[in-house]
Amino acid sequence: MVGIHAHTIDILTENGEILTTHRRAFGDSRTDTSDYSTSLAMLMKNSGAWSNSGLRRETPDLLRTYMDAQPRNKLKDCLRIMNELTDQYGFRTAVDAMEKAILTPKMKGDFYSHVLETGRQLSLNRKIPEKCPSKKRITDSRTL
């Protein structure tokens, strides 16, 4: 199901729960938008699609190179970490935390724990947190 609003389009479950919200794009020519949450969810199921994904193209060089060099199981771990951080703090913070963790020599503990802690610290330092879509229930929208 879909909830169509003036400035957004909601992708809904059969029960009316919001899976994700896309901002509507208007213009005289083609407009493309991407949604990190749905891209990450699909890539975690099929990490082999990473090399051709739009998300990969939007990932900064350092992180993209690091993730490209990982074997499939480690790439899945990276995507899982990116997804968790994106859900909690937003995509920009997730990317920054992962890059910072890559550059940190001799980190204590495992990569996963280090990246999560780095993301938490970065989010505390951000003045305006990124808005993550909420999973609220739609009660008054028109659905198709």
Topology, please?
Elements: E1 2-4, E2 8-12, E3 18-23, H1 36-45, H2 54-58, H3 61-68, H4 72-89, H5 91-103, H6 111-125
Antiparallel strand pairs: 1-2, 2-3
Helix pairs in contact: 1-4, 4-5, 4-6, 5-6
Q: How would you describe this structure in keywords?
A:
3 strands, 6 helices, 10% strand, disordered C terminus, 3-stranded antiparallel beta sheet, 48% helix, single chain, 144 residues, globular, mainly alpha
Give the oligomeric state: single chain
Biggest sheet strand order reads: 1-2-3
Query: Compute the gyration radius: what is it?
Result: 17 Å
Mean pLDDT across all amino acids: 77
DSSP strand tally: 3
Distance between the termini: 6 Å
Taken as a percent bin, the fraction of beta residues is 5-15%
Number of helices: 6
Shape: globular
Q: Tell me roughly what share of residues is in helical segments.
A: 40-55%
